[in-house]
Amino acid sequence: MLSPRRTLAMARKEWIQLRRDPRSMVLAFGMPVLMLVFFGYAISWDITDIPIAVLDQDRTARSRHLIDAFEASGYFTVVSRPERASDIDDALVHGRVTGALTIPPGFTRDLAAGRPAAIQLLLDGSDANTATVALNYSSAIAAGYSRDVLLQGRSIEAPATAETRVWYNPTLESSNMIVPGLIAVVMSIIAAMLTALTIAREWERGTMEQLAATPVHRLEVVFGKLLPYLGIGMFDVATTVLAGVLIFGVPLRGSILLLAAMTLLFLLGALGLGMAISAVLKSQVLATQVAMVATYLPALLLSGFLFDIASMPAALRAVSYIVPAKYYIAVTRGVFLKGVGIDVLWIQGISMVAFATVGIALATAAFRKRIEA
User: Fold this and answer.
1) Which of 287, 305, 310, 372 could form an SS bridge with 181, CB 3.0 to 4.6 Å?
2) Pair (126, 238) in one structural domain
3) Bridge-partner residues for 53, per DSSP?
4) How do residues 296-314 score in pLDDT, each as one tens digit?
5) How far apart are CA 373 and CA 368, in angstroms?
6) d(CA 141, CA 138)
7) In angstroms, how far is CA 351 from the centroid of its own chain?
8) CA-to-CA distance for 180 and 331, rounded, in angstroms?
């Protein structure tokens, strides 16, 4: 029978070892918040103040109003007003501007005659993301300007307009999407790296033989070693959630208890995975490197955190189904932004249970194998 007393004794031993290791303490308590704040500020898809050049060949009040509309939007900043079209190419090549707006002569005359008045916006496509955003912004500004022209001209045929609303993130703040996902990515990395040192530390310090000779069941060893890190992980998640709400202003609309329960399951799986890696490799340096590859890259690339999974090739979409961070990110974003409950997140809940079970099973199997060796 498993003994809670022996399990707690093993947990106490692990906590004493952890407390005497300054590197592990910094990794456990300092790194999660530091990574959240750093990545939270560094990663942003909110693009403003796009530098553009403006060549106004019409030089009328109408053309100036259009330029003012671009500047007043807050998305574009006019940094250059070339006199010739040849200067635009030079500014784009040297990277002084991201785009160039050209208003041809006769722009106002065409508007007054009711004819389409074309303008040109050249964009630097070497940065495809910024160019795409700038293209959308400019299209919206041009549509708004055209609507104003029609209304000022008292046109009988008003243009058709689409009334749109954005739910869950009305301001389209990228931090509202990034921070909940970052919690999952950071914790998957930290949890696996922390326990990747546990068994390997025993081998390198020569205490593995003593641990093997101790009359403690392998499950008691696994759970005893996991308990301190599980407590640290829950503390780190609470800290990062608080930082996300207070520093980045991310709304927390859902149940904290649901988030805590899902986090507990996710951490059990990640910690178990790290312990299994540690038991197999026996080297702290190698175990840390493997844990980073096994957790960081999938959590960053195949979880839907940065890249849309639906747009990936079929092979990568299939691999993403076994990435636990994918399901945990759906939980964090659902709880933070949508305020949904277990009736919506039950698939993710089942996935978390499966991940926790597999993680503990792998840790137990790997540890037993090494003791018998």
Assistant:
1) 305
2) no
3) 80, 100
4) 788 888 888 878 787 788 8
5) 9
6) 5
7) 20
8) 9
